[in-house]
Structures are given as structure tokens and as C-alpha cells.
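CO-FOLDING WORKSHEET

Operator: S.A.
Ligand of interest: copper (II) ion
Run index: 188
Mode: holo prediction, single chain
Checklist:
[x] sequence pasted
[x] SMILES validated
[ ] output reviewed
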Amino acid sequence: MERFLNRMVRSPQYLALGLVMLALPLALAQGGSSNGKTESYTIKESDYTYKPDTMTWHVGDTVKLTIVNTSPNHAHMFMLGKKPLNMVTSGFGTSYPKGWKDTLLSSKSQVGFSDGQGVKMENPSPGGVAQPGAVALEAADKVDGGQAHVTLTFTVPDKVGTWEFACFEQKGQHYTSHHMVGTVKIVK
Ligand SMILES: [Cu+2]
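OUTPUT RECEIVED:
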């Protein structure tokens, strides 16, 4: 090693090689499996589906998600999480899902909303349970000159596993009766 270092100092060629050898482990340590790329998607909502309805996201990547509601007369939601949050909402004790108990994103500040039109609701908190990044878009008949849309931007958190996105409009019926649900796999 000492001999190598001596030669490195004397010869510019060896100096360059030495610098590469020093830099390589640093680059590997920082890289991980994803390199903080940006993944862009457009999701079209309709009655009562999402297209696409499956995605795979990588931890640490930036996701840019443009959501468009193509339905002529129904508002739809996009909410990311796990385990429906059932809430009693009538005197008859009827309960229905209004969001998720476990949300994928954990704070509003994590999510950028841009280029929104016909946004009915952002970051709701049904029953006090914050749903960061959740959004409801109006039906096209309520939007001047086209379809409601918005772009969400966030970093994929380190929550490896299978997550869902769903719509809980009309007292949860879009979820319970129409099964308006999609799946996101989060991988390293
Ligand atoms: Cu819906």
C-alpha cells in the first residue's frame, strides 16, 4: 500500500486511479437500489376504475402522479393507504369507509399539489385521521372546459409492501359496491 501511495503521488496516472478507487465505495454507499429517479404516471379515473390500476414504485424515487377524472357526472377520489377507516355516520349506527387507517404518506408537507383544476378536496381528515396526498376531483360536468385534474409530487417513503388506492365517494359505495381500488407495490 505504501509503495502504491508513493507511486500515486509521483505519477498523475496513479493519482487518477487512486481517486477513482476512493470515490467508488462512496458512490456505492449513496446509491442504494434506486438513484432518486422521477417516475411519472397519469391515472385516469372513470366510473368505477383507475387506469392504470397497478404500479410499482421504488423507495426514494420521486413520483409525479397526474390524476384525471374522466367521469362525466361522478366525483372520484384518490386515496393511498391500507385498512379502511370505517366510521359510524348515521343515527342508525351504519358505518362506511371514509379513508384509510394507515396512510402511505405521513404529512401534508410531503406532497406537492400542482396544476389543479376542479379539485373538490385536498388532504382530508375524516374523523381526525389525516390522509396526506388524498384528493377528490369533480365530475366533468362541474368543470369549465374539460376534466378535473391535479398533479401530486412526493418521495416514495421507505414502506415496502403492497398498498392500495381507492375512492370512498358516495358513502363509501365506490369502494364497497363498485370496488374502485388499485394497487401499488413499493419495492427497494
Ligand atoms: Cu369514485
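REVIEW:
Residues 48, 76-77, 167, 169, 174, 180 surround copper (II) ion (CB under 6 Å).
Helices lie at 2-10, 12-31, 173-176.
[x] output reviewed
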